[in-house]
Amino acid sequence: MKKRLFGIFCIVLSLLFCMTACADHGDSQDNSGQSKTADGSSKTDAMTLADGLYITEIFSYSGAYVEDGSNDVCEDICAVRLLNSSAEHYQYLRFSIKTADGSEYRFAASTLFANATMTVLCEDKAPFSDGEIVSSTLDNCAVFQEAPTVHLETVEITYTDGFINAKNLTNDTLTNVYVYYKNTDDDGFFGGITYRASLGDIPAGELTQVDSGNIHARSSKVVFVTYDE
Fold this sequence. Notes:
The protein has 229 residues and is mainly β. The protein is built from no helices and 16 strands. It has two domains: 19-144, no CATH class; 155-228. The protein has a seven-stranded mixed sheet with strand order 4-5-6-9-14-13-16, with no helix packed on it. The chain has a four-stranded antiparallel sheet with strand order 1-10-7-8, with no helix packed on it. It has a three-stranded antiparallel sheet with strand order 11-12-15, with no helix packed on it. The chain is elongated and about 60 Å long.
């Protein structure tokens, strides 16, 4: 049975999972000290957003702008790479950085799991000034109260370019099924955006397919699935 996609959304400020706000939002920091990442390498405090949460790289990016779902081509905008070496699964993050030349960049990211990396493109497609980070601020964040799951015992998810298939493995109807997925590249997750596809209700034992233009067999990853229990 095939159903049309009800909606794909950028999930940054809210998701269906229960969440709890981060205990520390992180004050603006300068680069007077150093901290250690999980692999033992040092990072200046300016690149530390929270305990175990680091900006490991800042660079210029040209290509598809994924953060608003448009995939419009952009050139030489500011991008950063995040490393979460903590035990927390971040539901969303909003943070900003300042560079030595006085430029300021703002970022939003969602679904950053423990021990994962993510490339995030700056808001407003701000051009990169090629400056060193001198301060960073974690403006807002929330973590999942429970680790997100794809419910392998309940629903089987497969996907090809542009389509998501979900099979109900149970003897009961699954209601309000949503599939959340992200872009990936060789460095981990690519883009702060998390996409959401609605599959509606899936009767026991049946397969449902939806159109989902942003999903790709080689470069997407389903990160969790939700349904009413």
